[in-house]
Predict the structure of Class I SAM-dependent methyltransferase.
Amino acid sequence: MKKSLDEHAERFSDHADAYDEDQDSAAYRACVNFVVDHAAPESDDVVLDLGTGTGAIAFALASDAAEIIGRDISDGMLEKAREKADGRGVENVSFGDGRFRAPNVDRPVDIVTSNFAMHHLGDDEKREAIDTIADLGPRRIVLGDVMLFGDDDPDAPFYSPEVDDPATVGVLADAFTDAGYALTAVEMVTEQAGVLVAERVKSD
Ligand SMILES: C[S@@+](CC[C@H](N)C(=O)[O-])C[C@H]1O[C@@H](n2cnc3c(N)ncnc32)[C@H](O)[C@@H]1O
């Protein structure tokens, strides 16, 4: 990880007021749409959205699921998310402190989503994160993120080498497989951003 969690949290809190307006790229919207479409919760599902930020994924899924739990490290982003929930009258979403390797969730969840957040972790930390998520027992994990389909290009969108640490798609696929999940869809949005869908492998 190129910066500490506290530094990342502060960076996002400083940017929280402008965050939603700044997410105007076609690639960001495409990743959000893929994450939401592939998450496809049932009406009785509990969904955990990690690195929820101001709740883009959480709100998009709220009307389809029983409950959405949003977790993030940035107080400023969480405050914005709560303001939006109040303003929109959405009652089945909750937002609180939690991180990939310590999500602060003490019960099983059905689906885990995450969009553009895990790439701040180093590769070994991503593995730990995926193992931690798997321990919550979701049948599906949908990860939208900066990820490398080819060679890295710091000049291309979504990758700032000073703060980001994107994994190759291969590293992520291995981590999901080792945690007991099989990739069932891979959506390449750009050469440096995409969405992976992992389903729990049923053991007999
Ligand atoms: C680029 S924003 C994405 C927000 C939202 N998922 C979206 O799609 O708009 C990244 C978010 O991840 C959070 N974040 C970064 N590292 C994290 C970690 N280790 N655990 C939980 N959240 C983290 C940041 O605070 C920030 O709110």
Observations:
- Residues 149 and 191 are 5 Å apart (CA to CA).
- The pocket of S-adenosylmethionine is lined by residues 5, 8-9, 12, 23, 32, 50-53, 56-57, 72-74, 77, 99-100, 115-117, 120-121 (CB under 6 Å).
- The chain has a mean pLDDT of 95.
- Residues 5-200 form a domain with the Rossmann fold fold (CATH 3.40.50.150).
